[in-house]
Fold this sequence. Notes:
This protein has helices spanning 3-26, 32-54, 73-84, 91-102, 106-117, 129-141, 152-155, 173-184, 191-197, 202-214. It is mainly alpha-helical. The chain has 2 domains: 3-117, Cytochrome c-like domain (Cytochrome Bc1 Complex, Chain D, domain 2), CATH 1.10.760.10; 129-214, Cytochrome c-like domain (Cytochrome Bc1 Complex, Chain D, domain 2), CATH 1.10.760.10. Helix 8 runs antiparallel to helix 10. The model has no long low-confidence stretch (mean pLDDT 91). Bound molecules: heme C (2 copies). One heme C binds at residues 7-8, 11, 45, 49-50, 52-54, 64-66, 68, 76, 79-80, 90, 92-93, 96-97, 100, 112, 166, 178.
Amino acid sequence: MSSIDRRMTRLAPALAAIGALTLTLAGAPAGAQEQAAVTQQAEDTAIGVCGTCHGPEGNSINPMFPRLAGQHAGYLVRQLKSFKEQTRGDPYAIAYMWGMASGLSDDTIDALAQYYAAQKTGPGRSHDPATIARGRDIFEHGIPAQGVPACAACHGPDALGSDAYPRLAGQHAEYILKQLGSFQSNMRKIAVMHGVAQNLRTPEMQAVADYLESLP
Ligand code: HEC
Ligand code: HEC
């Protein structure tokens, strides 16, 4: 059994509890008390279930699991719905997130997104200065000769994102690199990011990923 399989086995009772709670809340009339219960349930889920991989406050340690702290709520809601609807379909998304998202109600998804958006982000991680300088140049100016646009145009000058574009600052380089590969191969099928990534070479992706991880 891999350590991830063991982790999933330990999570089974917690997941059954979310299912039960979602069913109970679904039948209750809407109101402030129910909203407070949804918020509390989301926080318990974030810390007790999602936290096993993403860290209790969304600052995961293992670079396989994206950092969620400080990510925009609108982006998080869209991703959780795309896992639930099974449209974000790279292998890790299928293996880890389809099951996690399948039992979440829309209200719980909203409350989880609010929880993570409100968490404090961790510090950036240092990398080789020459690689960071190369990555920063790609982020700010793109690679015009290869038709790669400037990332900053959408993700913002400091990679802080907006509701439409995810925050990239402080994200794990390994996760970013893997996502760029998935956009390139269309395994994660997003037309705009496929266009951005299609002409990026691996060392260029690595440089921009290292630069982004170094940002606070
Ligand atoms: C067993 C580990 C595991 C657990 C538990 C887990 N996740 Fe994930 N999550 C992942 C992995 C792995 C990915 C990255 C998938 C990929 O590479 O595409 C991910 C991706 C995500 C993303 C996309 C982030 C982005 O930047 O696009 C969100 C949002 C997310 N998870 C939320 C949650 C929530 C909310 C829960 C709890 C209900 C949860 N996760 C539980 C492993 C986990
Ligand atoms: C024209 C706008 C645009 C440009 C330019 C752009 N992006 Fe994006 N990017 C997006 C959008 C939109 C998403 C969200 C896709 C989704 O909803 O799944 C995204 C998502 C991402 C993600 C996934 C984040 C996560 O948490 O999973 C990464 C990584 C990324 N972009 C990196 C880059 C890099 C690096 C560049 C420059 C080489 C770049 N982007 C340029 C629009 C853009």
